[in-house]
Amino acid sequence: MSTKTFSGNARICLITQGETMTPEAQNALLKSLEEPEPGNVFLITTENTEKILPTIRSRCQVLPLEPLNDGEIRTLLASRGCTDPGDQRALVAQAAGLPGRAAELLANPEDETLKKEAFSVFCAILRKESFPIFSFADAMGKSKERGVETAEYLITGLTGVMRALADPSAEPECDPAWTRQVLPQVDPVRAAAMADCLFELTRRLLTNVNPRIQWEACLLKILEIQENSL
After folding, report:
1. Model pTM?
2. How far apart are the C-alpha atoms of 149 and 152, rounded to whole Å?
3. Were 46 and a residue from 4, 19, 24, 152 both cysteine, which residue would form a disulfide, CB within 3.0 to 4.6 Å?
4. What are the structural domain ranges in the chain?
5. pLDDT, tens only, 83-106
6. Domain 108-227 is in which class?
7. Rg, the chain, Cα only
């Protein structure tokens, strides 16, 4: 922070996932926030402001970024050439109100292939088949970031299923494939328990763990939940 910039008079210091900073790290940041070098601007992003120390929050201007509604995401997708209603519906469900994620999903079809594989493995688990778990966990162990995105995709699908279970008269918000293949095989209690497993997985993947082992443990737990169903 004390070094000179190569060009220009300003510098932006971006700290992502600020909630993952330890209290010690946040306290170490305080001096730079209190006495910044001229031209330095700090941007701290976080999904949970309560995990940012009050001493840090009091020195920052909070800019809440709310998710976009489904119509706004559809408009974004249409502006980028995605006009098929079925494709839009699937991408809207996966984007969960985040325009950047919607654009990324549209720009990276290989990620869509990975999510289809994840969905296939999840459906196999619902049929109480364990054999796909280990090869899929091995593939997921190669990238924590892609593992988190894949887990979030499964969480989004399950969330849509739970909403459909809670209000059968409403039009399902999830991808039609989830409605056809997952909805008939789960109940609200099991779906919620499976979602909890995936939430815990995403939390663990953000720490110093072996992602393959975490995926195996999560999927085996989901299999156990399904096997214990009546």
Report:
1. 0.59
2. 5
3. 19
4. 11-57, 108-227
5. 888 778 878 877 878 888 888 878
6. mainly alpha
7. 21
